[in-house]
Amino acid sequence: MKLAFIVHNAYQTERVMQLLKETQIDYYTRWDHTTGKGHGTEPHLGSGSYGSTNAVMMIAFEDEAPLNALIEGIKATNTQIGRPADRIRLFQVPLDRIV
Fold it and tell me: Phi-psi category of 7—alpha, beta or left, where left has phi over 0 and alpha has psi -120 to 50?
């Protein structure tokens, strides 16, 4: 089992939701209006010069097939996003148990 966190600029939410639809993933937890800064990117703090925010999705996968499809979809989508700082990120970690 795996746990994936998808982090993206809030204006990419529609693209991420489309990816979930295309990969038939209809389960997730989403946090909107999150703030932070990635390696080599400007901060997304929700105010001031950096008025944008991020969104974070958490998805638990019991089967790796949908996760792999999502990863491929994110890779393909990221090739269409001009600025590397605006790309969609996925962080994958092991998941020991779902109760």
Answer: beta
